[in-house]
Protein backbone atom coordinates (compact mmCIF):
# COMPACT_ATOMS: atom_id res chain seq x y z
CA UNK A 1 0.00 0.00 0.00
CA UNK A 2 1.37 3.41 -0.98
CA UNK A 3 0.92 6.17 1.59
CA UNK A 4 -0.08 9.68 0.57
CA UNK A 5 3.05 11.77 0.48
CA UNK A 6 4.41 15.13 -0.44
CA UNK A 7 7.19 15.37 -3.02
CA UNK A 8 9.86 15.94 -0.34
CA UNK A 9 8.90 12.65 1.37
CA UNK A 10 9.74 10.62 -1.73
CA UNK A 11 13.54 10.87 -1.36
CA UNK A 12 15.85 10.54 1.63
CA UNK A 13 17.60 13.81 0.80
CA UNK A 14 14.27 15.61 0.48
CA UNK A 15 13.31 14.44 3.96
CA UNK A 16 16.67 15.54 5.40
CA UNK A 17 16.40 18.96 3.74
CA UNK A 18 12.88 19.37 5.13
CA UNK A 19 14.08 18.29 8.60
CA UNK A 20 16.74 21.01 8.55
CA UNK A 21 14.39 23.69 7.19
CA UNK A 22 11.28 22.94 9.26
CA UNK A 23 13.09 21.80 12.41
CA UNK A 24 14.99 25.10 12.43
CA UNK A 25 11.71 26.99 12.93
CA UNK A 26 10.28 24.43 15.38
CA UNK A 27 7.57 23.18 12.99
CA UNK A 28 6.50 20.30 15.20
CA UNK A 29 3.73 19.20 12.81
CA UNK A 30 6.21 18.55 10.02
CA UNK A 31 8.70 16.96 12.42
CA UNK A 32 6.00 14.49 13.50
CA UNK A 33 5.60 13.50 9.83
CA UNK A 34 9.37 13.18 9.38
CA UNK A 35 10.20 11.08 12.44
CA UNK A 36 9.26 7.40 12.60
CA UNK A 37 7.23 6.32 15.62
CA UNK A 38 10.26 4.51 17.09
CA UNK A 39 12.78 7.23 16.17
CA UNK A 40 15.78 7.62 18.50
CA UNK A 41 18.53 10.24 18.71
CA UNK A 42 21.95 9.31 20.08
CA UNK A 43 24.23 12.14 21.18
CA UNK A 44 27.89 11.14 21.46
CA UNK A 45 29.53 13.57 23.87
CA UNK A 46 33.20 14.65 23.58
CA UNK A 47 34.07 12.43 26.57
CA UNK A 48 32.63 9.37 24.79
CA UNK A 49 29.42 9.06 26.78
CA UNK A 50 26.18 8.58 24.85
CA UNK A 51 22.88 10.27 25.65
CA UNK A 52 19.68 8.82 24.17
CA UNK A 53 16.51 10.78 23.35
CA UNK A 54 13.33 9.24 21.99
CA UNK A 55 10.84 10.74 19.56
CA UNK A 56 8.45 12.03 22.24
CA UNK A 57 11.26 13.75 24.16
CA UNK A 58 12.62 15.36 20.99
CA UNK A 59 9.21 16.59 19.81
CA UNK A 60 8.45 17.96 23.30
CA UNK A 61 11.71 19.91 23.33
CA UNK A 62 11.01 21.52 19.95
CA UNK A 63 7.41 22.24 20.98
CA UNK A 64 8.68 23.99 24.13
CA UNK A 65 11.13 26.10 22.11
CA UNK A 66 8.28 27.09 19.76
CA UNK A 67 6.02 28.04 22.67
CA UNK A 68 8.81 30.06 24.28
CA UNK A 69 9.42 31.95 21.02
CA UNK A 70 13.03 30.79 20.77
CA UNK A 71 15.12 32.24 17.95
CA UNK A 72 15.18 30.01 14.87
CA UNK A 73 18.08 27.61 14.49
CA UNK A 74 20.54 28.01 11.65
CA UNK A 75 19.82 26.05 8.49
CA UNK A 76 23.54 25.52 7.85
CA UNK A 77 24.00 21.96 6.62
CA UNK A 78 26.52 20.33 4.30
CA UNK A 79 25.53 16.99 2.81
CA UNK A 80 28.58 14.72 2.92
CA UNK A 81 27.09 11.39 1.84
CA UNK A 82 23.72 9.94 0.82
CA UNK A 83 23.41 6.16 0.55
CA UNK A 84 20.06 4.66 -0.42
CA UNK A 85 19.50 0.91 -0.65
CA UNK A 86 15.99 -0.47 -1.19
CA UNK A 87 13.95 0.66 1.83
CA UNK A 88 16.83 2.01 3.96
CA UNK A 89 19.05 5.06 3.61
CA UNK A 90 21.87 6.74 5.51
CA UNK A 91 22.76 10.41 5.21
CA UNK A 92 25.83 12.08 6.69
CA UNK A 93 25.77 15.81 7.08
CA UNK A 94 27.70 18.49 8.88
CA UNK A 95 25.28 20.76 10.69
CA UNK A 96 25.54 23.81 12.89
CA UNK A 97 22.40 24.83 14.73
CA UNK A 98 23.53 27.98 16.53
CA UNK A 99 26.17 30.56 15.58
CA UNK A 100 27.92 30.26 18.94
CA UNK A 101 28.14 26.46 18.77
CA UNK A 102 30.51 24.29 16.75
CA UNK A 103 29.29 22.05 13.95
CA UNK A 104 28.28 18.45 14.56
CA UNK A 105 28.29 15.39 12.35
CA UNK A 106 24.80 13.96 11.89
CA UNK A 107 24.15 10.42 10.72
CA UNK A 108 20.49 10.14 9.72
CA UNK A 109 19.00 6.67 9.30
CA UNK A 110 15.86 6.55 7.19
CA UNK A 111 13.27 3.90 6.28
CA UNK A 112 10.85 3.83 3.39
CA UNK A 113 7.24 3.03 4.26
CA UNK A 114 5.19 2.53 1.10
CA UNK A 115 6.94 5.31 -0.79
CA UNK A 116 7.29 7.67 2.18
CA UNK A 117 10.76 8.14 3.69
CA UNK A 118 10.98 8.82 7.44
CA UNK A 119 13.87 9.34 9.83
CA UNK A 120 14.18 6.33 12.14
CA UNK A 121 17.32 7.44 13.95
CA UNK A 122 20.04 10.04 14.26
CA UNK A 123 23.52 9.89 15.74
CA UNK A 124 25.08 13.25 16.51
CA UNK A 125 28.82 13.49 17.17
CA UNK A 126 31.15 16.46 17.56
CA UNK A 127 32.58 17.63 14.24
CA UNK A 128 36.36 17.35 14.25
CA UNK A 129 37.83 19.81 11.74
CA UNK A 130 40.95 18.84 9.85
CA UNK A 131 43.62 21.21 11.21
CA UNK A 132 46.45 19.49 9.36
CA UNK A 133 46.23 21.72 6.28
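Sequence proposed for the structure above (133 residues):
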Amino acid sequence: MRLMSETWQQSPRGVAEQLVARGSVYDVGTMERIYDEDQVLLFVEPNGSVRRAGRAETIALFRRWAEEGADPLLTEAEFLHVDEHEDHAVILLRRRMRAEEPSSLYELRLRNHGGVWRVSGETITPWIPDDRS
